[in-house]
Structures are given as structure tokens and as C-alpha cells.
From TrEMBL:
Organismal lineage: Bacteria, Pseudomonadati, Pseudomonadota, Gammaproteobacteria, Pseudomonadales
Annotated organism of origin: Pseudomonas frederiksbergensis
Name of the molecule in the record: Uncharacterized protein
Length: 98
């Protein structure tokens, strides 16, 4: 979703929204924080790590954003995340049944 949306915006086939601006600004600032911890542009900490949580939370605070998903993600992106979560849940449940 991220790269498709950015490609549309850059090729002028898509209109940049406030949500897009918040998301990309947030991601760039997080990347700066990861670099400060020694991560390269091709690697990042796990979403479950303390470094990720601290960088993510501090970046939300930098821009005075709350934790509401719609501030950073479009409805389409939220639906895709929910569908992915559901697929992972179902996969986990199947593994427990065996």
C-alpha cells in the first residue's frame, strides 16, 4: 500500500492527502531515529521491539498526533491491515488445531 500510494503521488496520478502527508512525514522522522540507533535504510527494528515503540511514540509526539489510526492511514490501508491481521489469526488458529 505504502509504495503504491507514493508512486501514484509522485507520478501525479494521485492526489496527496493530509493523511498521506502525515504518514510520510512520520515515516521519514522514524527513519531518522532508526539511523541514530545505527539501523541502515534497508533494516528496521521489529514492530514489537522497544526501539520501534520508542521511535514511533516519540515521532507521534513530535507531530502532536494521537494513536488514532486514521491520522496516519487511509481507510483502504486500515482495511488491508485488518484483513492481514485476520489471515494471520486464522493461520495461528489452524496451527493450534493440529
Amino acid at each position: 500500500m505504502f509504495s503504491v500510494s507514493l508512486e501514484k503521488i509522485l507520478s501525479q496520478h494521485g492526489k496527496i492527502t493530509d493523511t498521506d502527508l502525515r504518514y510520510y512525514t512520520h515515516e521519514i522522522r522514524e527513519l531518522e531515529r532508526y539511523r541514530a540507533f545505527g539501523y541502515s535504510d534497508t533494516a528496521s527494528p521489529s514492530d514489537e521491539s522497544q526501539i520501534w515503540n520508542n521511535a514511533h511514540t516519540a515521532t507521534l509526539e513530535d507531530y502532536k498526533l494521537g494513536s488514532e489510526l486514521t491520522l496516519l492511514y487511509s481507510e483502504e490501508a486500515i482495511s488491508a491491515m485488518n484483513a492481514q491481521d485476520q489471515r494471520e489469526y486464522e493461520k495461528d488458529m489452524r496451527s493450534f488445531e493440529q
